[in-house]
Design a protein that fits this description.
about 110 residues; 2 helices; globular
Length: about 110
């Protein structure tokens, strides 16, 4: 990787970036692929919220099928920190035929 490449957990996002840093955070293949418990998932949403600039977006995609749906983002308390939005005509919570769910959230 490059000198700016960071390998770590989203739970530790604030160790690498200040508050109000990002316009957009993309989180794909994280829930159910590393974030496998409610505590860490709650922390990750809070850290993303803090790291986003005002009106910034968090775009999540996750698989709604076992064993990957251990943690469902919409059921987490910190999900309520965000507003659900429509992106390019696709509503937040859109599920593909392969059970991949897209969440478009704004701070």
């Amino acid at each position: 990787g490059t000198k700016n490449h960071i390998v770590g957990s989203v739970v530790n996002l604030d160790k690498y970036f200040p508050k109000n840093f990002f316009n957009v955070i993309f989180m794909g293949g994280v829930f159910g692929y590393g974030l496998n418990n409610k505590k860490d998932a709650e922390i990750s949403l809070k850290k993303c919220f803090n790291s986003l600039k005002p009106k910034g977006f968090l775009i999540i995609w996750w698989r709604d099928s076992a064993p990957r749906n251990i943690v469902i983002p919409k059921k987490l308390s910190n999900y309520k920190l965000f507003s659900q939005k429509t992106f390019q005509g696709i509503s937040s919570g859109y599920k593909t035929k392969d059970r991949v769910v897209f969440e478009f959230l704004q701070k």
